Structures
1.
Amino acid sequence: MNRHDIIIIGGGPAGLAAAAAAREAGVEDVLILERDVRLGGILNQCIHNGFGLHTFGQELTGPEYAERYADKVEELHIPYKLKTIVADVSADRIVTYVNAEEGVQTVQAGAIVLAMGCRERPRGALGLPGYRPAGIYTAGTAQRLMNVEGYSVGKKVFILGSGDIGLIMARRLTLEGAQVCCVAELMPYSGGLNRNIVQCLNDFNIPLRLSHTVTRIHGKRRVEGVTVSEVDENRRPIPGTEEFYECDTLLLSCGLLPENELSRAAGVKLDRVTGGPVVDDKLMSSVPGVFACGNVLHVHDLVDYVSEEAERAGRQAAEYVRGGGGDGETVVTLEAAGGVRYTVPQFIRPDNMADSVTVRFRVSDVFRDRSVAVYYDGVRVSKRKKRIMAPGEMEQITIRKDGFKAGIPKKITVCVED
Amino acid sequence: MKSYQLTCIQCPIGCALTVTVGDGGEVTVTGNTCPRGAAYGEKEVTHPSRTVTSTVPLEGGALPRLPVRTRTDVPKEKIFDIMAQIKKTAVKAPVRSGDTVIENAAGTGVDVIATKTVPAE
Ligand SMILES: Cc1cc2nc3c(=O)[nH]c(=O)nc-3n(C[C@H](O)[C@H](O)[C@H](O)COP(=O)(O)OP(=O)(O)OC[C@H]3O[C@@H](n4cnc5c(N)ncnc54)[C@H](O)[C@@H]3O)c2cc1C
Ligand code: SF4
């Protein structure tokens, strides 16, 4: 069997940054496997600007951001295979991939970086009643059809869900001459960034109806309209609030799901909340030598954080194949409590941790003038006031190694407090 | 005197701004918590600008569409004029990211540029 020191699954921004970081950390033999016809992942279809403010201090479009990382991979002469699907990963890091030239191949990896990204929650997972007419797309599929393949998806469009992709598509469709009648959001707050509400909806007078959902899709062959109802605090439609909107297209922008079939096959333990692998401070999963980063680990709204996280995963994978460190016995569990939905990583191995570890998390509701508190075994060690926190924006705290001088806690709790 | 209600987008806090323009053109911003909000509010009301992104048909490359954008932001009221010009434009591969696709789009003085490198097939 062929062997590679590090195999990276997925050539999106996460895979590319992980590959470059692993090579720069001194591992020569790195291979990227990508199922698409080009590198860059989802960014190829995100033609709008707003990427890279943190990393490059300027606003790039998705393709420009992706190209910077793809160019780096080329400059470092890191090999990659396109149109190559990884079909299986085993717990002892045997990777099975398929492509037209080589057929089915199995290779042994010294370490694996999972960077498969995520996919959109499809109609089936939303349980929308009605027929199954043509004209229903997830927002990202519509984005690919328009931006990459050049099709027009509809003339009169209703968007369900206020996720960023739906908002971006509302603007895109309007600029292309379609009419976007409305964006409806089940929750009482938007799932998208403020900036996208202003620049994609308000700029074009597109109404956003919070606490509303689609309760019926009309049309047998093609979408002819939708019935929209207001929902109560338990997200159940309120009878008598139905309104009909005529439209020929319905876009769904109702969340993203990390794509973890391969992780599951390898026996990687998954987090019920994030849908991604449970990882330690080195972004290593429950399977030794298998690392994860980017949207496969947890859904990110800013690609800059994806790149940073992926560099960390790449460096750690390099460290692992060089036999560096060792994990140590001690494990500190990170607990997400009151108002915090999850943390990534989910635990820390302090014996071999970096001087500081960034812990990212999301809150469960919109909180104004509240604090993020951190407890070590029930004793509060920090409390930081935040003007606003919202489920749509990722938050972070830093855990410092020297904070463990007084003794290593068993459990670190992160929560929202008054 | 005229007044406008805006949401500041300079940071995630999203302060609710009220911008008033007096009869002599003097602008006052309230509701902001920091100077960035004041600057944003004033600009949004006096000369709002945006970056326009779209795609144009691409001939002879591996992709049927080429993504493009305005090199810098342009006055907001020019967005649809620029889109009309973009819709009449087609490009032949090869093209490099940053290449000019439309010069001086809709008379704004700003070029529309390619945002992807696509070699000829
Ligand atoms: C539509 C959309 C709009 C966005 N807009 C913004 C924005 O405006 N600003 C911003 O900063 N961020 C934005 N984001 C977020 C950001 O783009 C993503 O967080 C980032 O692209 C995630 O990178 P990734 O590498 O983890 O995943 P991806 O980019 O999805 O890459 C994953 C790659 O893995 C490949 N792959 C998957 N499974 C396999 C397999 N079995 N074998 C081989 N290859 C495989 C896929 O083909 C893909 O190329 C947006 C995201 C989406 C989905
Ligand atoms: S005014 Fe300042 S604090 Fe308020 S949203 Fe704008 S940038 Fe943020």
2.
Amino acid sequence: MELDAKVPGGPLETKWERYRSDVKLVSPGNKRKYKVLIVGTGLAGAAAAATLAELGYGVEVFTFHDSPRRAHSIAAQGGINAAKNYQNDGDSVWRLFYDTLKGGDFRSREANVYRLAEVSLNIIDQCVAQGVPFAREYGGLLANRSFGGAQVSRTFYCRGQTGQQLLLGAYQALSRQVGEGRIALHTYAEMLDLIVDDRKAQGIVVRDLRTGAIRSYTGDAVILATGGYSNVFYLSTNAAGCNVTATFRAYKRGAAFANPCYTQIHPTCIPVRGDYQKKLTLMSESLRNDGRVWVPKESADRRPPDQVPDPDRDYYLERMYPSYGNLAPRDIASRAAKKVCDEGRGVGEGGRGVYLDFQDAMARAGEAVIREKYGNLFDMYHEITGEDPYRVPMRIYPAPHYTMGGLWVDYNLMSNLPGLFVLGEANFSDHGANRLGASALMQGLADGYFIISYTIGSYLATKKAGRLAADAAACRQTEQEVKQRISRILSIKGKRTATSIHHELGKLLWDRCGMARNEQGLKKALQGIPALREEFWHNVSVPGDGDDLNQALEYAGRVADYLEFAELLCLDALTRNESCGGHFREEHQTLEGEARRDDEQYSFVSAWEYAGPDKSPALNKEPLRFQRVHPSERSYK
Amino acid sequence: MRVTLHVWRQKNARSEGKLVTYQVPQVDPDMSFLEMLDVLNEELVGKGEEPIAFDYDCREGICGTCSLVINGRPHGPEGGAATCQVYMRNFHDGDEIYIEPWRARAFPLIKDLVVDRSAFDRVIQAGGFVSVNTGGTPDGNTLPIAKTTQEKAMDAAACIGCGACVAACPNASAMLFVAAKVSHLGLLPQGQPERARRARKMVAQMDAEGFGNCSNYFECEAACPKEISVEFIAWMNRDYLKARLTEPDTVTPGMGAKVGPSPVAGHDATAKKHPVA
Ligand SMILES: Cc1cc2nc3c(=O)[nH]c(=O)nc-3n(C[C@H](O)[C@H](O)[C@H](O)COP(=O)(O)OP(=O)(O)OC[C@H]3O[C@@H](n4cnc5c(N)ncnc54)[C@H](O)[C@@H]3O)c2cc1C
């Protein structure tokens, strides 16, 4: 497989500018002759759809949700980064770029990250113009807060509902194009396969979730903006519907899957309560601006938190990382929480929890200020746990949250399959082995509003407008395979629910390939997963039929893909015999227990290539070359 | 604890529906309402029976996907919460609980408790936006906005588009939903150029979708999981009236909708409930 990242030449700081001047354009009159299919209406998909339609391209949009506004982006809480330096606290494009690259433990592509930091400036302007009600200061200017892994205040927010407001901005822009007849919108439309003909992505096979009808749509290019795969762990902070199907199907059709083992475990989530839980709830990282994380110094200390005097408390993040303190990056804060709990100092039922305490902040700033900043998050915590965080410290524990891995893309955001573009959390490109808080929203909107509008031209301008007929052999063949798979799932009529199998898979992954990984555990996981897959294909129960709304069937199809994908994830984790960012191999740590990278051997992107059923996938490597930055040991002390 | 559920089951829009009774014998008070339904569905699927179809996604009260009329109240007994944020500790051992779908002509039923709310999308498509293309926008700090104005806009923008306001209204009116968007954008300087036109177009589309009129019952506010205030309805009415006065009451070409009766709150109680209700 050829992996050409197509990074433009010249100095890092001017690559994007030069690219934009040099890139081939499609003339205004010709744009409407091209049809672009976009799967997903989260920040990345909705922004891309609106922007490409505004430019005049023919656009068709697909989402399995009942409305584009339901995409998982809606749930993002804390904020979005941009190097505006409105606070005059020393921020710059360079600093945002460097923080992001370092935050990702020097495992991302330098040129992509630099471009991200550059276009971050435009995003805020765009959103304000759309009417996104960002928080403001009394003087009427935009307000900022801080997020992990940064020493400046560059995060813009809308109360605790930033994702909602950004998505509504993009959704409204998309809706305007739908209303004007420039976008054909398909809701309840789940993409179940990618149509590849002549070694190019040419269309998708979609199931209408209301009627079960399977049909092909073809276009000049296909954009996947289908989000991340944290739900492979069963319990995560992602919405229940998030899944890997779109990207995994594309992988099986020849798109390389990059760094699947780079998964992010978020330090501040509400701890697991019972076996019946389907998902976990995030408590936004922004809380760490004012909350202090602690556990008792002694493992035997079972006193209620208000009876533990300060000298008996271990504010372990402040102790271990004095310069970043409670704002240490996620991977580091999560591992530290695991460590103190492993030592028996965890709090709450099962000892899997740490305190996030606001008493000091309330004493300093007053309860009203804390209420204004975090009121809705406090209410949410109260509703879920029945405990009042204004009185009792929150209890939190890490949980799967975000996936840095995704389909491999070049500088154009195009995969190795010509015509297939991948945006947002679904691609791998910008966050390396760990993502900093408030950077996913930034990336989704950067990709959708400001990057794809240029880079798609580089492909379309070289291609004559025109698409495969919907009854071409490649379409019919792909549809047939989709139908067969569905009938097969419906015909098993076994005894176990897809949920119970998924739950078992999730436990296996969490134990063996979660916050800490080692060779032995990963090998065990790799043995266990095929057995679960067998169990699924012989004993799953999926009642009902395929020709009306069947939620059990939709879910079972996604679980079937997780059962294959999980193996790729573990294989990648086993192959990457170093620690970096969220990928912590216990064999490779410093004396102080920090991740130890091995730049000599592992400074590359792992791009996995599907080799056929029951064959081991092939590993392709894209070497990471740093033109301006020298990868250093990542320290937050 | 143990609860008895009476759940609306309906195979599809064409078939008849009915309430079916289920026992859920082992309910943990810390379970959410939807987790309780998950447990029941697990049992049904394990027996090879079709699970109850109901909508959900984020389970944090923000995506607006979940619905359900619980004992006659959209989103259940709690107030200020979506169904996914309702916990079983609000019920008692031995309770009988009735679970039904949103009922409104503009929200046709798809299956069991799932209804089609795409009418809301079409109302937004008609005018619920600021017409700016990507790029070329001024710096975000060019126009200062008073904190109080921004906070008020945010109160309106907090709408999650779940449709509880419609389900709660005896007329199945969508006024609160539409007013929330008209007010959010109309309060901000960026929304001014299209303020009148936006109100007019969105109201026209709302009428075309078959939502009922507002008769000041204010059930919508009580059911709204985000507690959006009916004040915004008055706000929109002012905007709408002004729009009709300042701009001729024309039908916009290509909209396919004509401006219906004034949405100004009156006492017209034309029921527009879904016939199966
Ligand atoms: C609780 C929570 C809080 C977060 N808070 C923040 C934050 O404060 N700041 C930040 O920067 N990031 C945050 N994140 C991360 C961020 O929200 C996501 O990474 C980002 O929104 C992903 O956007 P996206 O457009 O790539 O995909 P998504 O928003 O996940 O959208 C995916 C879309 O693809 C569609 N789709 C998927 N598969 C298919 C298919 N097979 N067929 C058809 N359609 C399909 C879906 O319907 C949906 O429309 C948070 C994440 C979580 C879980």
